[in-house]
Amino acid sequence: MKKVFFTFLASLLLLSSFAQSDKYHNAMLPKVAAMDTTHNIDMIKDLAGAFERIGDAEKTQWLPYYYSALANVSTGYMLSMGKMGGLADQLDPIADKADAMISKAEALSKDNSEIYIIKKMIATLRMMGDPMNRYMTYGPQAQQALETAKKLNPENPRVYLLEGEDKFYTPEQYGGSKEEARKLLELATAKYDAFKPASDIDPNWGRAMIQYLMSQMK
Amino acid sequence: MRKFLALGILLVTINTLTAQTLLKGTVKDIKDHPLPGATIAIKDSYDGGTSDSAGNFSFKTYEKGEQTLVVTAIGYKGWEQKIAVKDSTLGFSINLKEEINEMKAVVITAGSFEASDKKRTTVLNSIDIVTTASANADITGAIKTLPGAQQVGESEGLFVRGGTASETKTYIDGTLVNNFFYTSVPNIAQRGRFSPFIFKGTVFSAGGYSALYGQALSSALILESIDLPERSSANISISPIGGAVGIQKLAKDKRSSWGVNYGYTNIVLAYKVLNPRVDYYHMPEFHTGDANFRIKTSTTGILKYYGYFSQNQLAVRNPSLDTLGYKDAFRLKNFNMYHNLAWRENIGSYWKFNGGVSFTNNKDNINGSTQDSKNSQVILEGLEYKNFHLDAYGNYFNAKAVFERRLRGLSAVRFGSEYNYSNDKADYTLYNGNKYPNNIKENLVAGFAEADIYLTNDLAAKLGSRLEHSSLLNKYNLAPRASLAYKVGKEAQASLAYGIFYQNPERKYLPSTNDLTFSKATHYIAQYQKVSTLTTFRVEAFYKKYNDLIKTSVTNNQETASSNQGYGYAKGLEFFWRDKKTVKNFDYWISYSFLDTKRDFLNFPGEMEPNFAAKHTANLVLKKFISGLRTQFNANYQYASGRPYYNIRYNNSNDKYSIYDKGRTKDFNSVSLSVNYLPNIFKKGANQFTVFVFSITNVLGSNQVYGYNYSYNGLRKQAIIPPTKTFVYLGVFLSFGVDRTQEVINSNL
């Protein structure tokens, strides 16, 4: 009887720990999927909050904070869509929040290429608030973050996606080039094909952006 | 047992199947304004929600029993409460307290204008200083477009709110700078010595400044040098009046850097073209060099060295007013060396240290003479004194240490001390070989303490006090300072400032045979400002009272300080408006100053309007960047109403100064234009950064009269005018290895 009892207790413990990580995984999976399909700014804000709560509850997982930062920075990008400058008031608090999230993620996972991708996006977001006055500060900062991301993992497809995106949106007179953008995006596609995320909730976003940019070039 | 187990499992299942609890409510601040975007969560669970634009939230949870509800919002203090989750619906009404933080808190701004790239609420940034059309890349030139500063063109320096140029002191990285400007030349304003490119931040305080700064009755110009450069680079600049080369090297680990620069300026070509109204018999010629290193001493600490030397020469002659057909000649050679070592460090999370030492060595050789029509030196009877030689040597040492202890929120206390040593030697030799040596030494020691007290996010006070001892005067002074800032609305705040300021007598009027004391100014300032990211509006009223100003009399043919019986006042109203919002890529600012001031000091026979103060001063600065042309166009209009001028002479018979003639100059008008063409701006991967600069000051060729010179007997007078009516500058700056334009236009623009 004793044996049964202990087996039961052990399996209960095992079960509960499975249940725990299962709970984490189950909570993350639909939200990670939603990141790719949600284009409503309020829903992304909700996702940012949800990821932050998971991060706070789990305490040792970097992914929830990473996605929270990504969601925050995405709301900033959406706000600034099609506008140039004059948004620092609105974008700075968002960038601050994203910064806070990515710092928490970085504390749990050092030298992570994916985290530097977000850092690049945050620096770019800050610059977009007031490009004329900020490009000298945040331009090199964004560049540096992207270089670090590449150095840490040259196979990270998002490095080439962001490079291509920059080339795509920069007017030609300022050094942008659709041709170079295409090359970079093709390179990114090859990297995506070869890329194996560590799990089904690890970062693997961005493919849709390539398709969108490519369709714009036709 | 099995049954029991089965029951247990069943119970667990039932438990998880029970209904969810709905939590809902509102999040507001303490004034009951809804807070959108607040995060509401059940601690250690995934359940929670985000408040909407009305501050409402609702979410469901399966958690049961005693839980902790946590609410957070950016800029607010966190809120936590234990709750018992059992009912099907729980309602909450939550009020969050504002957190005191730099973003939202009031900033004490009365009296000061800050130019910086870092802080969000600054008025100018460092680029503004180099792109202001009338400034010619001179720091004080740009400051003169701000309210409070006068358009004085006949001598260098900042004349602020009825004060003389000597009442403004300049600090680099905390320590006092002696000889900030090139040595004075009669009736020709000189530039500042330092390039605006070496500074990342500028604070121009027109009054009411902190107890950290002293020995300035009117104003403090506080400059902060740049930290590590972004990248290594080499720079070249070429213009018809000179050139410069430099290199800046950033170490691989990005923890240290060094750089050297050398420049040569000779305005001979410009003057050939522009035909100056003065006769330079030695064209103004400058050699300047500087060197720097910067070392990161920790994640927060940095040690910075900046060293500078310059050697310049010029000689100028003008038709003499005193005797027709002859000329007054003036020749100047100057050597100047300046070293500044500054260190800042955070010690733990509460303490900050800022310290620095600076050393200056300055040498002037000045020759005055009378020349005949053939330009050879002559000594005329009665005017022998115009032939003289002056050798002046100055050695200056300054040190300062400031400790800061952070308190709760943004509150902090700061204290420290400052030491200024100066040794001025001047050997004056008259035509007949008579020598008049003069040596003034001063050891000024100061201690200061101040506290920033944030009572709430909306109300802050800065209280400070400064104690100084001068060995020269053998006296102490104690100067209290206080300012208060109150946030009156979103982006708007009102400030008040009060302070007492002391200053030593100017050395050129020393030594005195009488016992002297510090001159004193008392400032009262009231300010209102509304600042958003793209617009700035400020209005400021001030009253300044002067006591114990220096009076002079003539001893041994020299104007010397005789007493502290001078006094005066200045009051006025100033406006500033800057707008980058209304028109895209177009930026302008307007400043206007009204000044009412009178004083009795130096040789003034009584209380009167000083000759360096205009009643009305106005500036309009326009900047437009046309991205398609990669060109920035800058224009600037400056106006100042006429200033009084006097012929004050010493009457030997009654031992008094009297006014023999007076008048008022015509109004001052100047329109300046400049064009900056940046062929590589925003170009990605470009390894070279080029700027072409073309500028014209006083485009319309307005006749500008700064005042009048009189002959020694007062029979003749002559207008003081700029050396050239308009000045044209053309130059190109090349920078290699630095691509400052990376990532300028990015994916989402």
Automatic annotation (TrEMBL), chain A:
What is the top-level taxon of the source organism?
Answer: Bacteria
Q: What is the lineage of its organism?
A: Bacteria, Pseudomonadati, Bacteroidota, Chitinophagia, Chitinophagales
Q: Where is the signal peptide?
A: 1-21
**Name of this chain's protein:** Uncharacterized protein
Alphabetic keyword roster: Signal
State if Signal is listed as a keyword.
Answer: yes
Q: Which organism is it from?
A: Flavisolibacter ginsengisoli DSM 18119
TrEMBL record, chain B:
Read off the SUPFAM superfamilies from this record: Carboxypeptidase regulatory domain-like (SSF49464), Porins (SSF56935)
UniProt key word Membrane: yes
Note whether Translocase occurs among the keywords: no
Q: A single GO CC term, please? A: cell outer membrane
Q: Which InterPro entries match?
A: Beta-barrel_TonB_sf (IPR036942), CarboxyPept-like_regulatory (IPR008969)
Which keywords are on file for this protein? Cell outer membrane, Membrane, Receptor, Signal
Q: Where is the signal peptide?
A: 1-19
List where in the cell it is found. Cell outer membrane
Q: What is this protein called?
A: Outer membrane receptor for ferrienterochelin and colicins
